[in-house]
Structure formats: structure tokens, C-alpha cells
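Page 47, continued from p. 46.
Same chain as before, 505 aa.
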Amino acid sequence: MALSSPASDTAVSATSTPDADLSSALGMLAMQDPSIPTSGKCHIDRCAVETLIQVAESLDYKGLCSLSRASKRYTEAAQDVLYRVVDLRPGGEDWENWEDSDNESTFDQPTKSALAVFLWTIKQKPHLAPKVQDLWFLPRSTLVEYPQLMYSGVSPVALMSKPRSYVVEVNEKKLACDLLARLTELRSLTITALDEFLCRTEFDDPDNYVLPYLKVGINKTVFGRLSIPLNKLVALPCFSKLTSIHLSHGYLDWQVVTLPTLHTLCIGIRAKLPMPSVNAEAPNITSLTLEAEAGGQDSRFLGATTFLRCLPNVHTLTLGSYLREVGHPRFPRSDEDRFRCSTFGNTGSFSKRVVQALLFYGFSVENLIFKYAEPVHFGDDSTVCLDVRTSGPLQRIQIAECALVDSHNFQRLEGSSPSHQLPRRIRSLVITHPRSPGPDDGDHKSKLTSWLGELTKTDFLDLERVEVVCSVGYGDDIGFKQRLEQSAEVRYLKTIGVAVVVRKE
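Result:
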């Protein structure tokens, strides 16, 4: 048998005998074609970097760190995933240390800063900066320790004798400008802290503080707080590709909102979007998320209806509800309503009146999404059903089952049939948190099943797809998915051309 070696274009003779073992044959073939695996050897190093990145994406943080130390080959793949999302949000530990201290001068000392450490890292390894696509941070109005001198040959003896004399004290907002200037591939920016009190001290009116002598600018915009003019800031490479901004507190600069690449805004209940004039428009924004929390008053959303008029092309409106005991993974949990009792309607923290007002001013909204903190909880007076029949542009709705079918006590609400709640031009309906049938439900059919049977082509001519999304504690019991898929109501929907998907997440 003659095998052609691609590297040398020469023929290599090999004698194959019936009793030749597999390992010898593979070893002989591998000598001429490196792509053929050899028995007993690992050939993962021959995989493309893209393949290794896919493997890295399936690992947790600890696994990624271990992978990055395995070899130089793995480091590249692991770093692509490790540095894709960088969370530098400060927490409230500095305030706690200051409050516990009897010496008030402690407050004037520089604090440790994850932002400073990360900036030092990418200065030493510039190839890491372009890997950052999603940054979470909040530059503080305080001096922080910049670790440069800690790694520049200062002797350990000197550090032990006079540790403070070798610490560089730098304003964190100045470091933030340096960091942003290096992140050339940034796509998403989240501006908040891990601690609610820290956010308020940085953004809110000082008159509302427990500590009134803190020097914080009144009504300072989010980017106006930084030590670089706004026109120069938005000219940085990181803003040339920015597609989304998430803000929990403060005033967002209109010049940033109108960046041509920006299309997604996530606004917390304590964030504001001041407009330069009543006729101002940001046609680039296509997706808007509003975050609320327990005890929020309807009056807090008046500003949202105002700036929705200035976003003529918002196609997706997401209403996200906090829960006081759970909070939100991106924004900090507020302690403002700690001693108040809050109730939720079936639309979460958003009342029926607020939802209808938002849709009235958001006349271009085609996709309405309700998101709830886990676990979903509703007050005893939860009898407010969704009613968006007059919202003509709506084509897709994602909402919890109880907003369509059940009240808090699992009783079918009067006027809760689909024709009394949904717009006639709806194309897709996603139902989350389905209620499993209880022991008194007879044949174990959930109320959702009968409700789905009322989705007829007569009422909803354009309806194409219905999804039921089960999660932990909601529709995840044994047999629920199978019973729903095999129900006569679901089979009927499929015969009239409506796709029904029951899935778990």
C-alpha cells in the first residue's frame, strides 16, 4: 500500500499484515497525515480556537480559570470567555468599614478598587482589552488605591514598615476614563453598584442623604460626572460600537442615548432620561426595559410615558418586576420599602393603568414582555388581568399564566377569555410560570388547557405560535408537559395551523 505524504508529495511504502494492531496502523498513518488521531495521545490541541471557545462557554468561572492555566493553547480560549463580561461593580463593604470605625479620618483614606486592579491588568496585557464586550461598573467620587507601585520593585520590607506611603491615590472616575479608552470592542455598558446606598450617594440629591456633607454633584448626568468632556467621551472607540446601556440610578445623557449604534436601553426606577426639548427624538432605540420594585407608585412612571413619546421606533418593551426579598441580578436590591407591605397585580409591579399608558405612548411597540423576579409572588388582591385589546401594533406578548387565567386563589377571573384581553392581530403568545393542576382539579386538566382552547382563528386570524415555558416550581411536575401536549385543546390548535411548544428553562 502506498500512501502519499501531503508535506513532501513522496510515496511512502507501508506493509499491512492481517495481524498488524490498530495502534501501529494509526501511528504509521499519523506520520504522513497529522489530522489522523494516534491511539493513546490527546489531539485537542489540533482543534480550532473557535471549537475550544465553545467548550469554554460551557464551563463555570472556576472551570475557566483552571482551563486558562492548563496551557497557552487553552489560555486563549478561556480568556475569550472570562473577559467577555467584566463585573467591576463596587459593593457596600467600604461604608460598613467606615461606620464600624471610631476614627472618622478613615473615610478619607483610599479604598480598594476592582476597577483600578483591572485597569492595571489590561495595561500589562493589552491583548485582553479587545475581549471585553460587556462592562458593569460605577466609578466612585473617592480616592482609590491604584496598584501600580505595589508591583514595581518596592521591597516587601519597605511595604511592611510604611505601607501607606507606597500606595498611589487616584480618583476612580479618572481611572474609568482611562479604562473606557482602552475597550475598543465594548458592546454593552451597565452603570450601577452592588449596594443601593452607594448608588444613591453617587447619583441622588445630597439633601436626601443621611450624610449631608458628602460632596456629590446635584443633578449631575451619569457621564457628566467623569473627568472628560462629553463630546470627547463619546468620541472614544468604545462608544462607536456600543449597542446597549443599563442604568439603575441617575440622569442619562441625551447625547449618549442618540448614539447611532445604540439600540437598547434598560432604565431602573431611579434612573431618569432628561430630554433637551419636547420635540427631541432618539429613533435609534428599538428596545426599552423598565425596572420596577415592590411598593412603586404609578406616579413614578410618568417620566417613562414622557420619554416614550421621544422613542418612535421602540419595538420591544420589557417590564421587569423586582421582588424585595430577591432583587435583580443586574441592579442592586433596594431597602427603601423594607418595612412596607406591598401587593402585586397580575402584571407584577406594573398596574393595569400604567401598562395601558405605556402602550398608548409607545405606539410602535410590537413585542410586550413581562419579567418577574423568582419566585413569582402575588398579593391577595391580585385580580388585575392584562387587557391590551386596543393595542393594535402588538404582535407578541410574554406574560405569566396568572395574568391571563387565574387570580391569586386559582379561580377563573370574569372576562379573562382571550378575546377579552388580547389584540386581534397577535402572532405569538409566550406564557411563563404555568400553574400545575391541583388535587381538586378532577381530571388533572389545568385551567391553562381550557384557556388555550379558546384561541380560535376566528378571533385571532394571524396567530402562529404559542409557547408555554416551565421553570422550577412552575409546570415542572411529572407529567404536566406531556398532559398539556396531548390535550384535545392543544391538538386542536395544531390542526388550525398554530404551533404549540411546551419547553423548560
